[in-house]
Write a structure and sequence with these properties.
Shape: elongated
Radius of gyration: 23 Å
Oligomer: single chain
Number of strands: 8
Structural class: alpha+beta
Amino acid sequence: MLTTDILDRVITRVDDDAEAPVSVTEAEALAAVNEGQDLFSWLTLCLETTATLTFPANTPFGTIRDSFPDFLVPLRVVVGSTRLRPVTFGDLDVLDDQWQARTGVPSRYAALGFDFWAVYPQRAFNLPSSWTYAQSPGLLTGSAGEVPQIPEQYHPSLISYGIYRVKLKEGAQGLTRGKEQLNLFLDAATEHGDFVRARSRAARYDTLPFELKTFDRARLFGRTPRIRRGMPASPIAGTTEPGDAAGGATQ
């Protein structure tokens, strides 16, 4: 799906809402769709690439985004034919209290946040390493022929997120009407995140996507009203309380 088609559908569906007190501009819709693609990529780690980062001589740590400006999280780090094991800085302190000065053949690496790496032990010469990492998507501009980077079958989820995001400026009622669209977006991210997680486990990647399936959406949407006999469940609710399901205890 083209970016322009996604923007047109966001704008049309928001402007066609008779209850909406305001409309949306193309710039607002584009910002919302970019935000949605960034969030989808972060939640699912669906975009990945492999590139070279050089560990400088006699240096135990450095920055990542100077080499990889689209870096999110590491998936696999290889030096020569050796795959480095991921560790935390706490692990390194326990393993060797002199790790920042230790030299030798690298066997472990650590990544902190979006822009910091450490290697243990360090080499006395520049050492290239191959990083497979989850990447953030490029910024959408809305130009002719442009296509979002996330998998094509999930492009409709960007429409859902775009509608949700631009409705926030309407206030409380706009947020309520946008919840259903956010739920659709999260459903899509959950589905693809499960697929990426299974693929990542098979590849023995160091980082897995966030488990949206176990995330309590009531934190976002509020607690679900209790369901009484003869009353349908809310279509935008995330969870129900025990005993609220059909056939359960009612009050």
